Amino acid sequence: MIPTIFAAGLTISLAYALPHAAVKRQVSELRSSYDFIIAGGGTSGLTVADRLTEAFPDKTVLVIEYGKVEYAPGMFDPPTAEWGGAGPRAGSFIFSSLPNPEVKNKTAFVLAGQAVGGSSCINGMFFDRGSRHDHDAWAKVASLDPDTGAVRWDWDGVFPYYKKSTKFTDPTPGVVTKYGYTWDRSAYGGTTPIYSSFPPFQWGDFHVAREAWKDMGIRVVDDCAGGDKDGICWVPTSQHPVTAMRSHSGLGHYADVESARPNYDLLVQHQVTRVVYTDGISSGPPLVEARSLIDDSMLNVTAKAEVVISAGALHTPTILQRSGIGPASFLKTADIPVVLDLPGVGSNFQDHSGPRMSWNYSRPGNFSNTPSDMLDPAYAAKAVADFNMVPALGPYTLAMGNTAIYVSLPNMTADYMAIIDKMRTMAADDSAGTYLPADSDPTLIAGYKRQLSVLADFLSNPQAPSLEVPFATGTGFVNINLHPLSRGTVRINPSNHLAQPILDYRTGSNPIDFDVYLAHLRYLRRTFTTPTMQKYGAAEVAPGASIQSDAALLEYTKETMGFSYMHPCCTAAMMPKHLGGVTGPDLKVHGAPGLRVVDISVLPFLTSSHTSSVAYAVGEKAADIIIEGWRE
Q1: Domain total for the chain?
Q2: How far apart are CA 77 and CA 130, in angstroms?
Q3: Among 291, 327, 383, 622, which is least packed by CB within 10 angstroms?
Q4: Domain containing 537: what range?
């Protein structure tokens, strides 16, 4: 059994490292036209391309990708010698945001994938899913009533696509006994070669946080992938279960299938600059204009059926804006003719954020296997040898870790209703718009008020997570605000439309976010007083015992804030146009025939998860929507 699985994984890995017949680099290699053109060969885009070429063997599909085919190792593959680092990895876009005035003018550091496979090539491989309450709230914000026959994006409408999108492999009995992994087989069941598994290794102190959280009364959940996500969770990793190599869409949705799909073409190292409606906005589908990154030449490609923009939350809105689709007032200042006034394009920008905490031990445990062991040449050499075994073993199989807590506001603080009441008041009066960017369109204000109202209900639910804290080893936590209320923008550079976009995070622009950060910090402080932590003499280092008042904690939060946990989203939100939305439940761009958006930008707000699994599920569901529509 193992040699067969290994051979399959090795075949995929080797195939990905070799040239592909379908990869195009020159205009002369393209067909005269395509049925479907997908702008962006990332997590969602390649998922859609795979499904369309499979469902319609007589229809042609072209994917245009900015990056190229590159090797994409896991987060901790050799030769990295320090845990938390990374070996040679696929290309990345690197962004620094505008300064955040409410957080001491600090900037956000953000990465996005620039390779075939997109951000699934560079992410932390932490493969959790949103909760049922996230998706049910999503449907409410998007005004989707399942009784009307609209496409369903509530939990029942999305859960089958979470299951379809990945292939989960059970850990071996010995690993289960050693680490106590639990899971629910009914939450899985897909056969797609996007692999999900638990690693055969944990650092020696992995259990400390879990035991401390149990001391705090946080319940242990057998599996958090089935919609129930309030408690201590085991989280799978997006890696091959035998080789422990990163599993990403460039493998599972391209390299693994392209040789059998003569209708599947991939054009690399080209930037989709815009879509063009040659006879007016009602004449779709549009042409796709692209620029070669090799020789700067331009080309137009004709789509006979439709165009799908799948360039991610940072580049999808910029393609639309360069096309004249976006906020009319901004387009005019950027000297772009307005084709379609759609204020929500590039608005509603969000990312997960939060401060850090740390402690030390006065009586540290005698833990075997800690990251410092990697500094021992003999230990490091054995770690490399173990990783090269079949199956792979040892610390290089771990990635970022596999455990986390997800906790709701009602389970953190008795004062949670004060936060909820602020949100509801803001949603009901005229103050909401003052926390959005200046001169926000009235539709954006209306949509934001609706979001505040729905999120107030969501965050008052004791089963709906507000906080995530992942843990693998060491003496520090990141505490992640899963549902920030501040909203930023993504805009093209007015002086250079083809340059990388300008990100304005506006972190902390809604002051309620700071109330939530402080509630999270005060709650997590209890960790250090638990019997488990006190057994090792744990003492809080940061914020530290001297920092107790709200004012001092607020100052600490602003000093240690992580502005981005690399989950940018929501810049082409699935909401009605009169609420500032860009896409409908069928993912079609409002008022733009033959044009859809399929990526993480369609979320109206962040889910209680890292975004990779959501992007796969969105791609799978979108593919079914498109296939069903064209079959009809």
Answers
A1: 1
A2: 27
A3: 291
A4: 92-253+349-631
